Task: structure prediction
Amino acid sequence: MITTAEFTETLAHFATGVTVVTVADGRDDIGSTITAVASISAEPPLVMVSVRSDSYLAEVIDRQGTFAVNVLSARQKAVAGRFAAAGRPSARLLLASEPHQRGEHSGALVLTAAVAALECEVAQRVVAGDHTVYFASVTALPRVSGAADGPLLRYGSRYRTLG
Result:
């Protein structure tokens, strides 16, 4: 069981950070850089993730019902770029040189050097314009090591860091 204090502490790391959402799909691993992630509730722990409805990521999240949110550290700018590129290969290939593990609850890839990571289970989905908004229960907070680096931010169409 995730405590409110653990969840609140984790949220402090990603309110405006760049995230990579990953999902395990039996045959492959899917991932994409997104910035539309927000905390919805601390009790119970819920987050909101918004992805394009016509994306393969949305299709796989709909099929699997679980995913991981990786809040990127200031040192992971290249990872953000790789997961944002059109026509990108498998998430496993994109992370070949990055330390990562499988989430215990979601099976999705979790970046070990992220600022924070959440494993999530879809509780509700809402189509809003050209995006699908997923309201998800946080099922686990995998251990990661990048908090000291600070978060990677996106502002003015560029990746930035604090300080």
The radius of gyration is 14 Å. The chain has a mean pLDDT of 87.
